């Protein structure tokens, strides 16, 4: 009798994961519904669009990826894992695309060419009404030095100094995005394996790409792929 019950539960779990179920929800931005968002099951290639109320319904099974795309918003992806609740209605929030502008510093210097005539600086001279001598010696203008300064000014005019972005660290962004408990449940890892697993991921050159655009779903997809490799290595 116990054997029959066990077989029934195994079969029930198999059919539950094998047959697709409906994922329902609503797509919003700033608490307002978004119409005509493409909801894509990346695995089955099914594509549907949200209605006027931002609502959607799409079929999926465990281990599927669902992508939400609209040309005016950043792409959002969700992963259907074994803990996913199909009975719960989702609320997906999209954020409008923004253009990142590098910070620049423009050094502006006042041009010394203002008031120049025939390539030589005009030195204003006001003739005194009374002539007298105070014992000082008038020093002539060093035109070579003046032209040297003008040449240097044109060379450095509108010079732009770029501040390079600091690279995003894989371990830092992973810690900010997902807790160890989440990684244990989603990737089926043990507590004592987390540190070794993250070090294993860090040595992969693709880890920089995974955090390059600071997209949490791209990072999660990378972690899932690496977890499969990590488990195979430890099973040997």
What's the total helix number?
7
Mean pLDDT: 76
- Report the radius of gyration as a whole number of Å: 34 Å
Helix content: 25-40%
Low-confidence stretches: 4-10, 12-17, 112-125, 128-133
The ordered string of helix (H) and strand (E) elements is: HEEEEEEEEEHEHHHHH
Shape summary: flat
- Residues in β-strands, percent: 15-25%
N-to-C span: 37 Å
Instruction: State the secondary-structure class.
Output: alpha+beta
Count the beta strands: 10
Outline the biggest β-sheet. Answer: 4 strands, mixed
Could you describe the 3D structure shown?
- By secondary structure, the protein is α+β, with helices and mostly antiparallel strands.
- The protein is built from seven helices and ten strands.
- Strands 1, 2, 5 and 8 form a four-stranded mixed β-sheet that branches. Strands 4-3-6-7 form a four-stranded antiparallel β-sheet, covered by helices on one side. Strands 9-10 form a two-stranded antiparallel ribbon.
- Helix 6 packs antiparallel against helix 7.
- The longest helix has 20 residues, at 216-235.
- The protein is flat, with a radius of gyration of 34 Å.
- Mean pLDDT is 76; it is low at 4-10, 12-17, 112-125 and 128-133.
């Amino acid at each position: 009798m116990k054997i029959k019950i066990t077989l029934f539960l195994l079969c029930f779990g198999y059919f539950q994961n094998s047959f697709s179920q409906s994922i329902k929800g609503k797509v919003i931005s700033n608490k307002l519904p978004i119409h005509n968002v493409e909801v894509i099951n990346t695995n089955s290639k099914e594509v549907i669009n949200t209605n006027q109320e931002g609502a959607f319904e799409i079929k999926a099974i465990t281990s599927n990826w669902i992508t939400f795309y609209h040309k005016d918003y950043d792409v959002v992806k969700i992963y259907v894992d074994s803990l996913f609740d199909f009975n719960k209605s989702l609320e997906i929030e999209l954020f409008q695309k923004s253009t990142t502008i590098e910070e620049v510093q423009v050094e502006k210097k006042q041009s010394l060419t203002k008031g120049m005539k025939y390539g030589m600086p005009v030195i204003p001279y006001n003739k005194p009404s009374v002539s007298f001598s105070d014992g000082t010696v008038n020093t002539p203008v060093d035109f070579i030095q003046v032209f040297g300064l003008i040449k240097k000014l044109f060379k450095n005019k509108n010079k732009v100094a770029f501040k390079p972005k600091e690279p995003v660290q894989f371990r830092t962004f992973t810690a900010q995005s997902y807790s160890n408990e989440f990684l244990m449940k989603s990737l089926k890892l043990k507590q004592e394996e987390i540190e070794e697993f993250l070090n294993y991921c860090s040595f992969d050159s693709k880890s920089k790409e995974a955090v390059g655009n600071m997209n949490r779903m791209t990072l999660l997809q990378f972690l899932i792929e690496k977890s499969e490799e990590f488990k195979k290595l430890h099973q040997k």
